[in-house]
Design a protein that fits this description.
72% helix, mainly alpha
Length: 76
């Protein structure tokens, strides 16, 4: 396999893996511990969960932008 193609496929796999890990962690904490749902009114735990959720989403987007920055299309 050519090195450029290998590097491109590795970036794809790493991006998908990081997104899936982010989803798994946030869904596990939110659903398993019940922070994603309100029971009447939001609690401090709900607020902390959603702030951490949004902060980690921003960090994930920054990570993916940095990973894909400078990628050039392969011309054959």
């Amino acid at each position: 396999m050519e090195p450029e193609v290998r590097e491109f496929l590795l970036k794809i796999v790493q991006s998908i893996s990081m997104g899936m890990v982010w989803l798994l962690v946030n869904m596990s904490i939110g659903i398993y511990y019940g922070f994603a749902f309100f029971e009447g009114t939001p609690t401090l735990g709900n607020y902390i969960y959603y702030v951490a959720f949004l902060a980690s989403l921003v960090l994930l987007i920054l990570y993916l932008r940095k990973k894909w920055k400078g990628w050039q299309e392969i011309n054959y």
